[in-house]
Amino acid sequence: MSTVLCPGSFDPITVGHFDIITRARDLFGSVLVGVGRNNQKNYLFGDQRIDLVEESLRDMEGVTVSPIEGLLVDFCQERGITTVVKGLRFGADFDFELQMAHMNRGLTGLETVLLPAAAEHVTLSSTILREVMKLGGDVTPYVPPAVVRAIEARRG
Ligand code: PNS
């Protein structure tokens, strides 16, 4: 058994993320979910993203959650983590993931394993969900209950 890192922005966490984390845990035994910061992105849920990931995964055995500060490779090295697992939906994901995977491997030798998203999740996108949410649409089928509650609290 080894611990792998499932990193992401999780803005917000979706059922697609949940599936990848579960499958990574089943494959490797233990998963650390890292809630990261991509400086190119403007987060809708800000630091609440971490609470929502924690709440959504609280009952999942073999899974822990941590914010990622700084470089992913440093975060992994400090914890003895040698492998990152990420979900892959379509070609555009692959192009970006390949760039990050090579950069991370070049920096410290950190390996990346890409898991194909489940067929029912390949079109699921946090970006589209955020837009639907902002405009008052119902995203209940696509996000864990904790996120539904957070959206309801925002709407008041
Ligand atoms: O869900 P995302 O937006 O694809 O997640 C991107 C994330 C957070 C995994 C990525 O931006 C990241 O690794 N951030 C940490 C800072 C870092 O190491 N950046 C260089 C990556 S090659």
Account of the protein in words:
It is a single chain. Helices cover 45% and strands 20% of the residues. By secondary structure, it is of the alpha/beta class. 28% of the residues are buried. Helix 1 (15-28) links the parallel strand 1 and strand 2 (29-35). It has a 3-stranded parallel beta sheet with strand order 1-2-3. Strands 4-5 form a two-stranded parallel ribbon. It is built from 6 helices and 5 strands; from the N terminus they run E-H-E-H-E-H-E-H-E-H-H. The chain starts with a strand and ends with a helix. The chain has helices at 15-28, 48-57, 72-79, 91-108, 126-134, 145-155; strands spanning 2-8, 29-35, 63-67, 83-88, 111-116. The structure holds 4'-phosphopantetheine (PNS). 4'-phosphopantetheine is lined by residues 7-9, 36, 38, 68, 71-72, 100, 103-104.
Q: Topology of this protein?
A:
Layout: E1 2-8, H1 15-28, E2 29-35, H2 48-57, E3 63-67, H3 72-79, E4 83-88, H4 91-108, E5 111-116, H5 126-134, H6 145-155
Parallel strand pairs: 1-2, 2-3, 4-5
Helix pairs in contact: 2-6
Bound molecules: 4'-phosphopantetheine.
The site of 4'-phosphopantetheine has 11 residues, from strand 1 and helix 4.
Q: Tell me the total number of β-strands.
A: 5
Write down the overall mean pLDDT: 95
Give the H and E element order.
EHEHEHEHEHH
Proportion in helices? 40-55%
Uncertain segments are none
Report the sheet with the most strands, covering strand number, pairing sense and barrel closure: 3 strands, parallel
User: What's the alpha carbon Rg, rounded to whole Å?
Assistant: 15 Å
Number of helices: 6
| Ligand identities | 4'-phosphopantetheine
Q: Classify the beta-strand content into a percent band.
A: 15-25%
> What general form does the structure show?
globular
End-to-end C-alpha gap: 44 Å
